[in-house]
Amino acid sequence: MTSITAEKAPDPVGLYPHAKRVGNLLFLSGVGPRVKGSAEIPQGIEAQCRSVFENVKRVLEASGAAWEDLADVTVFLTNMKEDFPVYNKLWAEYFAENPPCRTTVEINCLPTPISIELKCIAALKE
Prior knowledge:
The protein is of the alpha+beta class. It has helices spanning about 45-60, 80-95, and strands spanning about 1-5, 20, 25-30, 70-75, 100-105, 115-125.
């Protein structure tokens, strides 16, 4: 197993790597929408969705993977009723072709005051 730190992604909020490579699989720790180098959190679900997708891309790139390598994504939303329609529309925009498997669940809070977090698995090319 290899731990990966993505220099262009926001620092983890705890003691864990951005990702772990096991064989040709890449497991990303939960990724949120915080801005690299600060505690800034984009305001509104659309801005948070776009930011979290970009942060996932940064971790993938640091790991030698690409957006298209995502195989499975678990999405955590803190307000399914209000945020799902916007998130679902943006998901379709970002994954217009060959979307990964997806599970979306509502939770009552996340470790920081964010509305969305993604947990991803990617398949790396050999």
